[in-house]
Protein: Amidohydrolase family protein
Organism: Variovorax gossypii
Amino acid sequence: MTRIAFTNVRIFDGSGEDPYTGDLLVEGKRIVEVARLPKRVSTDDARVIDGKGRFLMPGMTEAHTHFSWNDQPSLAAIQFMPPEEHMLWCVRVAKRYLDMGWTCAIGAAAAKPRLDVVLRNAIDAGEFPGPRYLAGSQEITTIGALGDNTLPHMKFEELSFGSVCSGPEDIRRSARTFIKYGVDHLKINLSGEYIAGLPAEMSPFAEDEVAMLAQEAKRYGKRMAAHARSSESVKQCVRHGIEMVYHASFADSEALDMLEAAKDRHFVAPGIGWLIRTTYNAAEYGITEAVATQMGYKRELEIASASLREMHRRGIRILPGGDYGFAWMPHGTNANDLQYFVDYIGMTPKEALMAATRLGSQIMQRPDELGQLKAGFLADIVLIDGDPLQDLSLLTDPAKVQLVMKDGVVHKDCATPVPPHAALHLAGADTPLQEQGVKEALAEMH
């Protein structure tokens, strides 16, 4: 059995404790010992990696992943990629995530029906490197809502971004089709989205349609996720047991009360990076700050910042990730969310790292073997050159993410050259809050 010893490392173990200097020993797939200096692990018959004071932490979980979003500036550009090329794209992007220390990911919807399932199966079979992955369905939507990009003069639904349904029986057919394909969870678009020309505060699904999705998911033992920006859509998530709530920007006091009362059953992955980067970093692609303001994104960012701070105060679980894979927020830069959690939600850097590690193990449904550096846990481990608790941007730099281990196997080694395209540093990623309106909205919460 392979033994690997990390010595002289600063250990962030994901338990909530402050980092400490120590050693860690891996045998096979699992961590067998974590020692705090002056205690040391045995290095007999082990490969020894001298950390020289570098930062050792659990692998991270991206809770709102779209591997099939292809770093393009529009939904149409994503959907119209031919399926053969699209599958190859997903394989390459999965490796990019693992290169950057994301050892787990939740598929928040695929651009084509089976992309997520095929990718998950290939990763699990060891055919290609990638995070351990839970596969989502296409976005289940309704006529005229987010994900319905069929043209009025064409009835080819296979060209649509989502699975377009109308009425409970359509929902049943769509859900059962994706379940047949082998998804881990079903995704439904319960609200609008400005970039699709739809108000984010709209809630297009009738109650009996959402109830049908929940009924079918329960029947087949599947989880559910929802694109839910509007307040009503958040309430629908709670009423119908949709565990993974994506966005939740406009959650009002009633929605917050409902989430808090059921906080042991729900996760919120807000995708706040989408709001920030679309507002301030998409000018090259035609979305200037003025355009983003007109669309509604600046206002949504102000309101979401305030509501997410309140969720954090109430102990509702908030996890990083969401909608990376557009041109102005490409795959591989996902760790920008951690600084955004500090700047916009009021987390400490430690809380942000805990959201990416320990909370990640909970949304992956494996809290007893993932998300911490602890004896008996699976060896998903990342070695960072520098201290992310002092500078979270280190986690966006492929040269600083020096070693990545998944299941006890070193995927990215300290000696591995870093390809220049592994991730992109985006201008302004670490800029502080820029708008007085955001500051005022946050101040009102105190």
User: Anything to note?
Assistant: The longest helix spans residues 297-314. Confidence is low (pLDDT under 50) at residues 421-446. The domain at 3-59+368-412 is CATH 2.30.40.10 (Urease, subunit C; domain 1).
